[in-house]
Amino acid sequence: MNVLNVAKLSKAFGGVQAVCDVSFSLASGELLALIGPNGAGKTTCFNLLNGQIAADSGSAEFEGRSLIGLKPRQIWRLGVGRTFQITATFSSMSVRENVQTALLNFHGRLNSLVSLAARQYLDEAMELLARVGIAEQAGRPCAVLAYGDLKRVELAIALANRPRLLLMDEPTAGMAPPERVALMQLTAELARASGIAVLFTEHDMDVVFAHADRILVLNRGRLIAEGKPAEVRANREVQEVYLGSGSLFGAAHA
Amino acid sequence: MKTRRAFLLGTVALAMTAVFSGPATAQNTIKIGELNSYKNFPAFLEPYKKGWELALEEINKAGGVLGKKVEVISRDDNGTPGDAVRVAEELLSRESVSFLMGTFASHVGLAVSDFAKQRKTLFIAAEPLTDQIVWNKGNHYTFRLRPSTYMQVAMLVPEAAKLNKKRWAIVYPNYEYGQSATAGFKKLLSAKQPGVEFIAEQAPALGKIEAGAVVQALIDAKPDAIFSSLFGGDLQKFVREGNQRGLFKDRPVFNLLAGEPEYLDPLKDETPAGWYVTGYPWEQINTPEHQKFLAAYRTKWNDYPRLGSVVGYATMMTAFEAIKKAGSTDTEKMIAAMKGLQMDSPLGKFSYRALDHQSTMGAYVGRLAQKDGKGMMVDWKYADGAGFLPSDAEVKALRPAE
Amino acid sequence: MSLSAIFVQLLNGLASASSLFLVAAGLSLIFGVTRIVNFAHGSLYMLGVYTAYSLVKTFGGGILGFWGAVLAAGLIVGVFGALVERLLLRRLYRAPELLQLLATFALVLIIRDFALWAWGPEDLLGPRAPGLDGAVGIAGRRVPEYDLLLIALGPVVLGLLWLLLTRTRWGTLVRAATEDREMAGALGVNQSWLFTSVFALGAFLAGLGGAIQIPREPAVLTMDLSILADVFVVVVVGGMGSIPGAFLAAVIIGVLKAMCIGIGNVSAFGIDFSFSKLTLVVEFIVMAVVLVIRPWGLLGRSQGIPRGAASVEPPLHLPSPALLKGFAAALLALALLPLVSDRYTLVLLTDILVFALFAVSLHFIMGPAGMHSFGHAAYFGLGAYAAALLFKHALPMELALLLAPFAAGLGALAFGWFCVRLSGVYLAMLTLAFAQIAWSVVYQWDAFTGGSNGLVGVWPAQWLAGKTAFYYLALALCAGGILILWRILYSPFGYALRAGRDSPLRADAIGIDVRRQQWLGFALAGLFAGLAGAVYAFSKGSISPDSLSIPRSVDGLVMVLMGGIQTLTGAVAGAAVFTWLQDTISRQTEFWRALLGGIILFLVLVFPQGIAGFLRERWEARAGGSKG
Predict the structure, then answer these.
(1) Residue C63 near residue C131 (C-beta atoms within 8 A)
(2) What was the ipTM of the complex prediction?
(3) Selection from A82, A79, A76, A99 nearest residue A28 by Cα
(4) Are B127 and B183 spatial neighbours (Cβ–Cβ below 8 Å)?
(5) Which of A119, B242, C25, C509 is most solvent-facing, going by the fewest CB within 10 Å?
(6) Domain of B50?
(7) How far is C340 from chain B (nearest CA, A)?
């Protein structure tokens, strides 16, 4: 079953077509990578889906509901989780409280003035932290965590609303290579185990080709290729785009 | 680290002394509590302080009162009613003063007056000009020394009526004093001169007059005469712009308070000649009581007195005479003594009216002139306050029943 | 108004705008580069006026003497500014944000008393400018020659600044630092030197802006604060960091004021309206309108709020049992105090309790919610006035006291709706604008609020009239209010507030409506500030407009910052120390304001994390030491 259906999505900024007629779909438990050279429109495409910016035309439906025109917090409410390129966590809270805050909102308890937030949904928070492998850091302030661990905190927060779709913007940016592999491994396992669809953008082609089930390639706002890693790797246009832009197409030239 | 700890310890120790130091009891002194906005209005209140300090020295040199020395505990009220009420409470309960005196701004004076009523304590309001303090917000415990806004306006109105000018423009600082002065002037002049028109009004924010624009707007209104209650920095700006732009040419101007040295002296060679003002021509008053005051003041302070000095001096002397007459510092006895209390002052004799607790102290009414690059008053005369108050019936109607 | 009258009023407005622009440009530069909210900028202006006055007397009133004095006054103030930056402010760049504001506030107190000591209390009206002391005929009216010079001076200074900022390497660095502080650091800019020079230039402009006023304006001791608000308005309306914006805003405000005065009284449909009275508040109305429509000022750009490494706040732990016992003991001590203390101690403590609640309510939005408010007194005052008015309109005192906070809460709900759409200094200035508008209404509405004199006779009911009884009431309501506000911070609502401050992006991504949360937080803080105000009104027996004026708002800020903005108990500590210091010091010396400023400076330098922050560090160090 398709979780996400995107059709003819377009967005222009002052005459520059940032995203043009992009269509694709995504099934539960599938990891779909969105790649392309700098300026290809990945981030714009991403932000169209998560509510940060509004599309000019086209449609994007999550479980049959249109995402167009919704705000990020409304999209979250539908069951979409997000992580950011530069981690965004609550630095004045402990790791566990970060997850608890998300859980509180998921359970509709965030407006309570009475209960003690730190005592709510403790077990559920600990379970999420255990799933991403940082349960032992639960009590530490987010501000002192290593970057790789922060990425895991983000993942735990993103999982708090039991999402059916995860949007991950450059999930491994800023991490050391071994950590990258570990994080994507974890993501893939979680996605497959819980049937979560994952759409992610990524620079590191090793990560992309190792973990993505399918790959979308954008260039100048248009979708130029789509398919399984092997197909995309063999695509001439894709190779040209990456060669033309000066960056090496990692694994393809190995 | 050591300094921090020492500082903390010091702070704590200071706090403890402040909290637990009881009232210092004094057997052979009469303590009077004085509070004023010294830091907010230093131009008026530094001379004021010198004035009452001089009076206090004279009183104690002459043996004090009721066989006791007089001590004044003076406090800064920070210019706000809230702080003033707290300071007043401190004076009463910690310093055990017999009664209160002082205050400058009207809203502070009114707050302390109401506090005095609540605490059943005598309060001699020295400076506040607001009519309300003795009239519609007057109370049994409060007496006021200075001639009020209404009185000072009333002193200028006869001169204004004499000129028989038809079209008047008015400029005033936009708060209660300016508003009352304006309302009073319109009412009194209309009564004396039916048909008079008030064609323009400018109400700049206190201390923030846009003098150029205000002067221009007044010129454009083409009035025959101007009534102003500006003072301080606003007055100085207004005068300079008015001089430069020709506003005062062939137009009589009436300005409350502008003859007081506090406000006149800074004008120097800008002093607009011919203005009708209330004020205090200290260098020209030759009465023996004033000569004596002037000499004593100059000896003690090596400076000349401002009007504030006279107010401070007379306030202190009021306290002295009231205690003497009452023969005690009991509040009710003192209030009884204050009603109708006859006073000698540097400005001559005056009394506190039993009717509304207003003193009949007057002011000097005259015109401004310039001499050797300095401002001065000419053609002045002393206007006794008793002659510039509304009828007793009117006052009774204003004052709340006791 | 005739066309010629409008034209001449336009000239008047432009003449006033020039000095305002100079001072504002300095403030804008300083803020743009150093992010310091310089409260002492008005004091630098005042120093410029006084210094120029003295120098003109020394140099003589010739053309050379006059202009030499004006320029020298600017330079002296510039050097003074550089010294302030090097000796004081640079020690605070790593401190929690806004702490420099506290330091500059201390400077305001010190400089004011210095001016009183050095120049005396009397107003000092300077001479007219030599050679420009007359007036020229324009449109049938006489306009002072000096005004024409000022009209020309504004654009000339704007041009010079533009050249300096665009044609020199120094200017490039300044612009880089204004736009992106981190990037400028990465480019290898010598920040130390840049900050000092910018501060010196800003101070020079403030001093010069003051000095050129001496032919128009006497040196008065209150001019520091009276220009400060105007200058902040100009900078914010123009867009912080934008020099052309400051010029535009100064011209708009200058001309608008002149036009209001020119129009004077208008009567239409049987209603008289005085535009002249509107000058009391017109600049704040302009600011409110501009900020609502353009959240970053006319020519400003969106600016991220820089949060230095030092400003990351430690997690908010539930208080330990030992700490809770400490609180309980403190409360018990306060409850038992009337048995041993004198009456005045109770009065002072009542004040402290009121201000503690006021400061805690301000901290509630400034700290955990990350919304700096420069106008929090509005809600204190609304509560106080509501209490007084309800009481005056025949409600029992108890009921008035309980209902009044809701009036303040409603006010905060209304104003807050606009405020939470902004952030950083713009938000702070919008709160200030609303507070000033509320203030001006209270100040002017004689029939209802008693106008500038306020309302008297607001005394508590008979059973609460005793100081001890009232003290217990204040203790119950204020301590109760404080505990409720603190408790809310531990609730999910409080977590949502902090979430919105820590990372609006993440908060949004987990479904939190950050604005709505901030809005409700703002209203809650207003409600409790209103409670403080209502208690205050009955404790004093009277209420006047200064209860919602700028100084009251600033007092709140000072308390929060002094106590430590990153510590929950900081606001209480700050309120207690500040109120007690003011009470005690004012009895010690005539120059108590300077002494108070000196103590604040000392506290800022020794405890940059605030008094309570320092105590917490000591506590934690000890606890850590005993464990390890």
Answers:
(1) yes
(2) 0.91
(3) A79
(4) no
(5) A119
(6) 22-148+287-362
(7) 8
